[in-house]
Amino acid sequence: MAGPERTLDCPEVWEVLEEYRRGELAADATAAVGAHLARCPACRRLLESADALAARLRALPRPAAPPTLVQAVRALAAPAPAPPRRRPARWLAAAAAVVVLAGLAGGALVWLRERDRPAAALEAVLESGVAEHRRIAMLAEGSPDVDDPSALFREVERLSGIPLPPVFAGTGDLRLRDARATVLAGRKSAAAALRYPSSPITTYFLLPGEDLPMPSERRVQIDQYRPYMRRVSGYNVIYWKQKNLAYLMVSGLDAEGCQKLFLTMRRAL
Amino acid sequence: MPDPAPDFRDQALTHLDALYGFALSLTRRAPDAEDLVQETYLRAFRFAHRFQPGTHLRAWLFQILRNTFLTFYRRDARELAVLDKDAADGPEEAWEAEGAVPSTATAVDLERALAELPEEFRSVLLLADLEGFTLGNIAEIMDTPVGTVKSRLFRARRLVRRRLSDYGRA
Protein backbone atom coordinates (compact mmCIF):
# COMPACT_ATOMS: atom_id res chain seq x y z
CA MET A 1 0.00 0.00 0.00
CA ALA A 2 1.48 3.36 -0.99
CA GLY A 3 2.21 6.10 1.52
CA PRO A 4 2.32 6.08 5.29
CA GLU A 5 -1.15 4.99 6.36
CA ARG A 6 -2.16 5.81 9.89
CA THR A 7 -3.28 2.85 11.91
CA LEU A 8 -6.64 3.32 13.61
CA ASP A 9 -7.63 1.65 16.83
CA CYS A 10 -11.17 0.37 17.53
CA PRO A 11 -12.60 3.47 19.27
CA GLU A 12 -11.36 5.64 16.41
CA VAL A 13 -13.11 3.35 13.96
CA TRP A 14 -16.35 3.40 15.92
CA GLU A 15 -16.20 7.17 15.76
CA VAL A 16 -16.42 7.18 11.96
CA LEU A 17 -17.93 3.80 11.21
CA GLU A 18 -21.31 5.29 10.34
CA GLU A 19 -19.73 7.70 7.86
CA TYR A 20 -17.75 4.77 6.45
CA ARG A 21 -20.90 2.68 6.01
CA ARG A 22 -22.57 5.50 4.15
CA GLY A 23 -19.64 6.43 1.95
CA GLU A 24 -19.31 9.84 3.58
CA LEU A 25 -15.59 9.61 4.38
CA ALA A 26 -12.72 10.99 2.34
CA ALA A 27 -10.71 8.46 0.38
CA ASP A 28 -7.75 8.26 2.76
CA ALA A 29 -9.95 7.86 5.82
CA THR A 30 -11.97 5.22 3.99
CA ALA A 31 -8.76 3.32 3.27
CA ALA A 32 -7.65 3.57 6.91
CA VAL A 33 -10.98 2.25 8.21
CA GLY A 34 -10.99 -0.48 5.57
CA ALA A 35 -7.50 -1.57 6.67
CA HIS A 36 -8.64 -1.76 10.28
CA LEU A 37 -11.74 -3.75 9.37
CA ALA A 38 -9.67 -6.22 7.38
CA ARG A 39 -7.82 -7.23 10.51
CA CYS A 40 -10.50 -6.68 13.21
CA PRO A 41 -13.38 -9.20 13.25
CA ALA A 42 -15.18 -7.39 16.07
CA CYS A 43 -15.45 -4.10 14.17
CA ARG A 44 -16.41 -6.03 11.05
CA ARG A 45 -19.22 -7.66 12.99
CA LEU A 46 -20.43 -4.27 14.12
CA LEU A 47 -20.54 -3.08 10.53
CA GLU A 48 -22.18 -6.21 9.18
CA SER A 49 -24.75 -6.15 11.90
CA ALA A 50 -25.75 -2.57 11.02
CA ASP A 51 -25.91 -3.46 7.33
CA ALA A 52 -28.05 -6.50 8.03
CA LEU A 53 -30.59 -4.51 10.01
CA ALA A 54 -30.70 -1.84 7.29
CA ALA A 55 -31.41 -4.53 4.72
CA ARG A 56 -34.26 -5.87 6.85
CA LEU A 57 -35.70 -2.36 7.17
CA ARG A 58 -35.57 -1.79 3.44
CA ALA A 59 -37.37 -5.08 2.88
CA LEU A 60 -40.37 -4.02 4.98
CA PRO A 61 -43.54 -3.31 2.99
CA ARG A 62 -43.96 0.42 2.39
CA PRO A 63 -47.51 1.71 2.21
CA ALA A 64 -48.22 4.18 -0.57
CA ALA A 65 -50.12 7.37 0.20
CA PRO A 66 -53.87 6.62 -0.04
CA PRO A 67 -55.71 8.06 -3.07
CA THR A 68 -57.67 10.51 -0.90
CA LEU A 69 -54.42 12.00 0.38
CA VAL A 70 -52.90 12.13 -3.09
CA GLN A 71 -55.99 13.95 -4.32
CA ALA A 72 -55.97 16.40 -1.41
CA VAL A 73 -52.28 17.24 -1.78
CA ARG A 74 -52.55 17.61 -5.55
CA ALA A 75 -55.43 19.99 -5.04
CA LEU A 76 -53.23 22.05 -2.72
CA ALA A 77 -50.44 22.03 -5.26
CA ALA A 78 -52.55 23.10 -8.22
CA PRO A 79 -51.32 26.59 -9.13
CA ALA A 80 -54.58 28.04 -10.42
CA PRO A 81 -57.96 27.80 -8.77
CA ALA A 82 -60.42 25.62 -10.62
CA PRO A 83 -63.14 27.72 -12.21
CA PRO A 84 -66.52 27.17 -10.57
CA ARG A 85 -68.32 24.44 -12.43
CA ARG A 86 -71.98 24.48 -13.26
CA ARG A 87 -72.56 21.01 -11.97
CA PRO A 88 -76.39 20.87 -11.97
CA ALA A 89 -76.55 21.19 -15.72
CA ARG A 90 -73.81 18.61 -16.04
CA TRP A 91 -75.30 16.00 -13.79
CA LEU A 92 -78.76 16.46 -15.22
CA ALA A 93 -77.38 16.08 -18.70
CA ALA A 94 -75.39 13.05 -17.64
CA ALA A 95 -78.45 11.55 -16.00
CA ALA A 96 -80.55 12.19 -19.09
CA ALA A 97 -77.93 10.58 -21.30
CA VAL A 98 -77.83 7.57 -19.04
CA VAL A 99 -81.62 7.30 -19.14
CA VAL A 100 -81.58 7.14 -22.92
CA LEU A 101 -78.75 4.65 -23.07
CA ALA A 102 -79.74 2.31 -20.30
CA GLY A 103 -83.41 2.02 -21.07
CA LEU A 104 -86.36 3.33 -19.20
CA ALA A 105 -86.45 1.14 -16.07
CA GLY A 106 -82.74 1.00 -15.28
CA GLY A 107 -82.32 4.58 -16.38
CA ALA A 108 -84.97 5.77 -13.98
CA LEU A 109 -83.09 4.19 -11.10
CA VAL A 110 -79.88 5.87 -12.13
CA TRP A 111 -81.71 9.13 -12.48
CA LEU A 112 -83.05 8.82 -8.95
CA ARG A 113 -79.52 8.22 -7.68
CA GLU A 114 -78.25 11.19 -9.65
CA ARG A 115 -80.99 13.29 -8.14
CA ASP A 116 -79.61 12.51 -4.68
CA ARG A 117 -76.07 13.40 -5.62
CA PRO A 118 -76.19 17.09 -4.61
CA ALA A 119 -77.55 16.11 -1.18
CA ALA A 120 -74.75 13.57 -0.80
CA ALA A 121 -72.24 16.22 -1.88
CA LEU A 122 -73.50 18.61 0.81
CA GLU A 123 -73.38 15.85 3.41
CA ALA A 124 -69.79 15.10 2.45
CA VAL A 125 -68.87 18.78 2.75
CA LEU A 126 -70.47 19.03 6.20
CA GLU A 127 -68.71 15.95 7.50
CA SER A 128 -65.42 16.98 6.02
CA GLY A 129 -65.90 20.49 7.48
CA VAL A 130 -66.43 19.14 10.98
CA ALA A 131 -63.37 16.89 10.70
CA GLU A 132 -61.28 19.80 9.45
CA HIS A 133 -62.63 22.11 12.15
CA ARG A 134 -61.53 19.61 14.79
CA ARG A 135 -58.05 19.57 13.37
CA ILE A 136 -57.79 23.33 12.91
CA ALA A 137 -59.16 23.96 16.41
CA MET A 138 -56.60 21.60 17.88
CA LEU A 139 -53.78 23.33 16.03
CA ALA A 140 -55.10 26.83 16.69
CA GLU A 141 -55.45 26.14 20.40
CA GLY A 142 -51.73 26.36 20.94
CA SER A 143 -51.02 29.22 18.53
CA PRO A 144 -51.09 32.94 19.17
CA ASP A 145 -53.58 35.26 17.44
CA VAL A 146 -52.66 35.95 13.83
CA ASP A 147 -50.76 39.24 13.79
CA ASP A 148 -50.93 39.99 10.06
CA PRO A 149 -54.28 38.71 8.75
CA SER A 150 -54.08 40.45 5.40
CA ALA A 151 -50.78 38.76 4.47
CA LEU A 152 -52.16 35.42 5.56
CA PHE A 153 -55.40 35.99 3.65
CA ARG A 154 -53.40 36.75 0.49
CA GLU A 155 -51.57 33.47 0.95
CA VAL A 156 -54.82 31.57 1.52
CA GLU A 157 -56.29 33.13 -1.60
CA ARG A 158 -53.22 32.21 -3.61
CA LEU A 159 -53.50 28.58 -2.54
CA SER A 160 -57.27 28.18 -2.56
CA GLY A 161 -58.36 30.74 -5.15
CA ILE A 162 -60.91 32.07 -2.67
CA PRO A 163 -60.60 35.53 -1.10
CA LEU A 164 -61.52 35.73 2.57
CA PRO A 165 -63.61 38.86 3.25
CA PRO A 166 -61.95 41.27 5.72
CA VAL A 167 -64.50 40.55 8.48
CA PHE A 168 -62.80 37.17 8.97
CA ALA A 169 -59.74 39.00 10.26
CA GLY A 170 -61.75 39.45 13.45
CA THR A 171 -63.87 42.18 14.88
CA GLY A 172 -63.92 43.58 18.43
CA ASP A 173 -63.12 40.76 20.85
CA LEU A 174 -63.44 38.19 18.12
CA ARG A 175 -59.89 37.22 17.19
CA LEU A 176 -58.47 35.38 14.22
CA ARG A 177 -56.51 32.30 15.35
CA ASP A 178 -55.70 30.78 12.01
CA ALA A 179 -56.52 30.94 8.33
CA ARG A 180 -55.55 28.39 5.77
CA ALA A 181 -56.27 26.85 2.43
CA THR A 182 -57.72 23.41 2.80
CA VAL A 183 -59.77 20.80 0.99
CA LEU A 184 -63.31 19.79 1.97
CA ALA A 185 -64.65 16.68 0.26
CA GLY A 186 -62.32 17.29 -2.66
CA ARG A 187 -63.15 21.00 -2.96
CA LYS A 188 -60.52 23.66 -2.43
CA SER A 189 -61.62 25.85 0.44
CA ALA A 190 -60.49 28.84 2.44
CA ALA A 191 -60.81 28.49 6.20
CA ALA A 192 -60.67 31.05 8.99
CA ALA A 193 -60.74 30.08 12.67
CA LEU A 194 -61.86 32.71 15.15
CA ARG A 195 -62.83 32.93 18.76
CA TYR A 196 -63.81 35.20 21.58
CA PRO A 197 -61.48 35.12 24.61
CA SER A 198 -61.92 31.87 26.59
CA SER A 199 -64.57 30.59 24.17
CA PRO A 200 -64.52 27.61 21.83
CA ILE A 201 -63.17 28.13 18.34
CA THR A 202 -65.45 28.62 15.34
CA THR A 203 -64.18 27.80 11.87
CA TYR A 204 -65.63 29.33 8.70
CA PHE A 205 -65.12 27.59 5.40
CA LEU A 206 -65.69 29.27 2.03
CA LEU A 207 -65.81 27.01 -1.00
CA PRO A 208 -67.17 26.89 -4.54
CA GLY A 209 -70.79 25.98 -4.01
CA GLU A 210 -72.80 26.52 -7.17
CA ASP A 211 -73.60 22.83 -7.39
CA LEU A 212 -74.35 22.41 -3.69
CA PRO A 213 -78.04 22.36 -2.77
CA MET A 214 -79.74 24.62 -0.22
CA PRO A 215 -82.02 22.12 1.56
CA SER A 216 -85.55 23.25 2.38
CA GLU A 217 -85.62 21.50 5.78
CA ARG A 218 -83.61 22.39 8.88
CA ARG A 219 -83.70 26.08 8.06
CA VAL A 220 -83.64 28.47 11.00
CA GLN A 221 -84.75 32.08 11.05
CA ILE A 222 -81.95 34.28 12.40
CA ASP A 223 -83.01 37.87 12.05
CA GLN A 224 -83.73 38.34 8.33
CA TYR A 225 -81.66 35.28 7.29
CA ARG A 226 -82.71 31.64 6.97
CA PRO A 227 -79.59 29.48 6.86
CA TYR A 228 -79.46 25.72 7.23
CA MET A 229 -78.47 24.68 10.74
CA ARG A 230 -77.99 21.39 12.52
CA ARG A 231 -75.62 19.48 14.76
CA VAL A 232 -72.97 17.24 13.26
CA SER A 233 -70.80 15.07 15.52
CA GLY A 234 -71.36 17.31 18.52
CA TYR A 235 -70.76 20.65 16.75
CA ASN A 236 -73.23 23.27 15.65
CA VAL A 237 -73.04 23.74 11.93
CA ILE A 238 -74.54 26.58 9.91
CA TYR A 239 -74.51 26.54 6.14
CA TRP A 240 -75.59 29.14 3.63
CA LYS A 241 -74.86 30.33 0.12
CA GLN A 242 -73.93 33.72 -1.17
CA LYS A 243 -73.29 34.39 -4.84
CA ASN A 244 -71.30 31.42 -6.14
CA LEU A 245 -69.80 30.50 -2.77
CA ALA A 246 -70.97 28.15 -0.07
CA TYR A 247 -70.27 29.19 3.52
CA LEU A 248 -69.92 26.67 6.28
CA MET A 249 -69.57 27.59 9.91
CA VAL A 250 -68.58 24.88 12.39
CA SER A 251 -68.58 25.90 16.01
CA GLY A 252 -67.94 24.61 19.49
CA LEU A 253 -70.29 27.37 20.76
CA ASP A 254 -73.79 26.46 21.90
CA ALA A 255 -76.68 27.00 19.50
CA GLU A 256 -77.47 30.48 20.78
CA GLY A 257 -73.85 31.64 20.69
CA CYS A 258 -73.45 30.14 17.27
CA GLN A 259 -76.49 32.00 15.89
CA LYS A 260 -75.32 35.28 17.41
CA LEU A 261 -71.92 34.87 15.82
CA PHE A 262 -73.51 33.91 12.51
CA LEU A 263 -75.46 37.15 12.57
CA THR A 264 -72.40 39.26 13.37
CA MET A 265 -70.49 37.85 10.45
CA ARG A 266 -73.37 37.54 8.00
CA ARG A 267 -74.24 41.20 8.38
CA ALA A 268 -70.68 42.18 7.59
CA LEU A 269 -70.48 40.08 4.43
CA MET B 1 -45.57 36.83 -3.11
CA PRO B 2 -44.91 34.94 -6.35
CA ASP B 3 -46.31 31.47 -6.88
CA PRO B 4 -43.78 28.78 -6.02
CA ALA B 5 -42.32 27.53 -9.28
CA PRO B 6 -44.25 24.66 -10.84
CA ASP B 7 -41.14 22.50 -10.72
CA PHE B 8 -40.93 23.12 -6.96
CA ARG B 9 -44.47 21.79 -6.60
CA ASP B 10 -43.82 18.85 -8.91
CA GLN B 11 -40.63 18.00 -7.09
CA ALA B 12 -42.34 18.28 -3.72
CA LEU B 13 -45.11 15.91 -4.85
CA THR B 14 -42.64 13.18 -5.80
CA HIS B 15 -41.91 12.70 -2.09
CA LEU B 16 -45.53 12.13 -1.09
CA ASP B 17 -45.27 8.36 -0.56
CA ALA B 18 -42.06 8.62 1.46
CA LEU B 19 -43.52 11.38 3.62
CA TYR B 20 -46.66 9.36 4.20
CA GLY B 21 -44.59 6.33 5.25
CA PHE B 22 -42.61 8.46 7.69
CA ALA B 23 -45.78 10.11 9.00
CA LEU B 24 -47.29 6.69 9.57
CA SER B 25 -44.26 5.60 11.58
CA LEU B 26 -44.55 8.76 13.70
CA THR B 27 -48.30 8.89 14.31
CA ARG B 28 -49.00 5.15 13.96
CA ARG B 29 -52.52 5.95 12.77
CA ALA B 30 -53.46 6.31 9.12
CA PRO B 31 -55.90 9.25 9.58
CA ASP B 32 -53.32 11.16 11.65
CA ALA B 33 -50.63 10.38 9.09
CA GLU B 34 -52.84 11.78 6.32
CA ASP B 35 -53.50 14.93 8.32
CA LEU B 36 -49.83 15.33 9.09
CA VAL B 37 -48.80 14.99 5.46
CA GLN B 38 -51.48 17.43 4.33
CA GLU B 39 -50.34 19.90 6.95
CA THR B 40 -46.74 19.40 5.83
CA TYR B 41 -47.57 20.28 2.23
CA LEU B 42 -49.66 23.26 3.27
CA ARG B 43 -46.68 24.59 5.19
CA ALA B 44 -44.23 23.73 2.44
CA PHE B 45 -46.26 25.62 -0.17
CA ARG B 46 -46.88 28.47 2.23
CA PHE B 47 -43.17 28.80 2.99
CA ALA B 48 -41.87 27.81 -0.43
CA HIS B 49 -40.12 31.18 -0.69
CA ARG B 50 -37.94 30.18 2.27
CA PHE B 51 -36.67 27.11 0.53
CA GLN B 52 -33.17 27.65 -0.82
CA PRO B 53 -32.77 26.24 -4.31
CA GLY B 54 -29.85 23.88 -4.45
CA THR B 55 -30.44 22.57 -0.94
CA HIS B 56 -32.08 19.28 -0.24
CA LEU B 57 -35.84 19.57 -0.86
CA ARG B 58 -36.57 16.09 0.43
CA ALA B 59 -34.76 16.73 3.71
CA TRP B 60 -36.58 20.07 4.02
CA LEU B 61 -39.97 18.37 3.64
CA PHE B 62 -39.06 15.69 6.17
CA GLN B 63 -37.95 18.39 8.57
CA ILE B 64 -41.26 20.25 8.21
CA LEU B 65 -43.15 17.02 8.74
CA ARG B 66 -41.26 16.07 11.86
CA ASN B 67 -41.45 19.56 13.35
CA THR B 68 -45.18 19.64 12.71
CA PHE B 69 -45.51 16.27 14.36
CA LEU B 70 -43.56 17.39 17.41
CA THR B 71 -45.52 20.60 17.73
CA PHE B 72 -49.01 19.26 17.31
CA TYR B 73 -49.19 15.52 17.49
CA ARG B 74 -46.73 14.12 19.97
CA ARG B 75 -48.51 13.44 23.17
CA ASP B 76 -45.76 12.28 25.47
CA ALA B 77 -42.59 14.30 25.45
CA ARG B 78 -41.32 12.59 28.59
CA GLU B 79 -40.32 9.38 26.86
CA LEU B 80 -37.17 11.05 25.56
CA ALA B 81 -35.76 12.11 28.91
CA VAL B 82 -35.39 8.55 30.13
CA LEU B 83 -33.88 7.04 27.03
CA ASP B 84 -31.72 9.90 25.86
CA LYS B 85 -29.70 9.62 29.04
CA ASP B 86 -29.15 6.00 28.22
CA ALA B 87 -28.31 6.88 24.67
CA ALA B 88 -25.19 8.66 25.90
CA ASP B 89 -23.66 5.18 25.78
CA GLY B 90 -21.17 5.07 22.95
CA PRO B 91 -20.70 2.14 20.64
CA GLU B 92 -18.38 0.54 23.14
CA GLU B 93 -21.42 -0.02 25.35
CA ALA B 94 -23.32 -1.40 22.42
CA TRP B 95 -20.39 -3.59 21.64
CA GLU B 96 -21.24 -6.40 23.99
CA ALA B 97 -24.80 -6.51 22.85
CA GLU B 98 -24.05 -6.43 19.13
CA GLY B 99 -25.14 -9.47 17.29
CA ALA B 100 -26.99 -10.46 14.21
CA VAL B 101 -30.69 -9.80 13.79
CA PRO B 102 -32.24 -13.11 14.88
CA SER B 103 -32.96 -15.10 11.77
CA THR B 104 -36.37 -16.11 13.12
CA ALA B 105 -37.51 -12.47 13.41
CA THR B 106 -40.35 -11.76 11.00
CA ALA B 107 -41.29 -8.50 9.33
CA VAL B 108 -44.11 -8.22 11.87
CA ASP B 109 -41.60 -8.55 14.72
CA LEU B 110 -39.45 -5.87 13.17
CA GLU B 111 -42.42 -3.52 12.73
CA ARG B 112 -43.33 -4.09 16.35
CA ALA B 113 -39.80 -3.50 17.59
CA LEU B 114 -39.69 -0.25 15.61
CA ALA B 115 -43.07 0.86 16.91
CA GLU B 116 -41.85 0.34 20.46
CA LEU B 117 -38.83 2.59 20.00
CA PRO B 118 -39.08 6.14 21.31
CA GLU B 119 -39.66 8.56 18.46
CA GLU B 120 -36.10 9.96 18.35
CA PHE B 121 -34.62 6.52 17.91
CA ARG B 122 -37.21 5.30 15.45
CA SER B 123 -36.89 8.43 13.34
CA VAL B 124 -33.11 8.41 13.21
CA LEU B 125 -33.04 4.75 12.19
CA LEU B 126 -35.66 5.18 9.48
CA LEU B 127 -34.11 8.35 8.11
CA ALA B 128 -30.67 6.75 8.03
CA ASP B 129 -31.28 3.20 6.91
CA LEU B 130 -34.59 3.37 5.08
CA GLU B 131 -34.72 6.86 3.59
CA GLY B 132 -30.97 6.99 2.95
CA PHE B 133 -30.36 10.55 4.15
CA THR B 134 -26.79 11.62 4.90
CA LEU B 135 -25.84 12.11 8.54
CA GLY B 136 -25.73 15.86 7.87
CA ASN B 137 -29.28 15.82 6.49
CA ILE B 138 -30.51 13.82 9.46
CA ALA B 139 -28.85 16.26 11.85
CA GLU B 140 -30.79 19.07 10.12
CA ILE B 141 -34.07 17.21 10.07
CA MET B 142 -33.75 16.27 13.74
CA ASP B 143 -32.17 19.59 14.72
CA THR B 144 -29.41 17.85 16.62
CA PRO B 145 -25.60 17.51 16.23
CA VAL B 146 -24.22 14.77 13.98
CA GLY B 147 -22.62 13.14 17.04
CA THR B 148 -26.04 12.74 18.65
CA VAL B 149 -27.42 11.32 15.42
CA LYS B 150 -24.71 8.68 15.45
CA SER B 151 -25.11 7.76 19.10
CA ARG B 152 -28.87 7.47 18.66
CA LEU B 153 -28.34 5.25 15.66
CA PHE B 154 -26.15 2.88 17.66
CA ARG B 155 -28.64 2.89 20.46
CA ALA B 156 -31.63 2.40 18.16
CA ARG B 157 -30.08 -0.63 16.50
CA ARG B 158 -29.21 -2.12 19.82
CA LEU B 159 -32.74 -1.65 21.13
CA VAL B 160 -34.25 -3.21 18.01
CA ARG B 161 -31.97 -6.25 18.23
CA ARG B 162 -32.73 -6.71 21.90
CA ARG B 163 -36.45 -6.54 21.30
CA LEU B 164 -36.21 -9.03 18.46
CA SER B 165 -34.24 -11.41 20.68
CA ASP B 166 -36.82 -10.99 23.44
CA TYR B 167 -39.68 -11.82 21.07
CA GLY B 168 -37.73 -14.91 19.99
CA ARG B 169 -37.43 -16.03 23.60
CA ALA B 170 -41.02 -15.28 24.54
Can you put this structure into words, describing what you see?
The complex is a heterodimer of chains A (269) and B (170). Chain A has 269 residues and is α+β, with helices and mostly antiparallel strands. Chain A has helices at residues 10-21, 27-39, 41-58, 67-77, 87-102, 104-141, 149-160, 255-268; strands at 170-171, 174-184, 187-195, 202-208, 228-232, 235-242, 245-251. Chain A folds into two domains: 10-58, no CATH class; 122-268, Protein Transport Mog1p, Chain A (3-Layer(aba) Sandwich). Chain A has eight helices and seven strands; from the N terminus they run αααααααβββββββα. In chain A, strands 1-2-3-4-7-6-5 form a seven-stranded antiparallel β-sheet, with helices on both faces. Chain A is elongated and about 90 Å long. With 170 residues, chain B is mostly helical. Chain B folds into two domains: 6-73, Rna Polymerase Sigma Factor, Chain: A, CATH 1.10.1740.10; 78-169, Arc Repressor Mutant, subunit A (Orthogonal Bundle). Chain B contains ten helices and no strands. In chain B, helix 3 packs across helix 4, helix 4 runs parallel beside helix 9 and helix 7 crosses helix 10. The N and C termini of chain B lie far apart (59 Å). The model of chain B is unreliable at 76-97 (pLDDT under 50). Chains A and B meet through helix 1, helix 3, helix 4, helix 6 and helix 7 of A and helix 1, helix 2, helix 3, helix 6 and helix 7 of B.
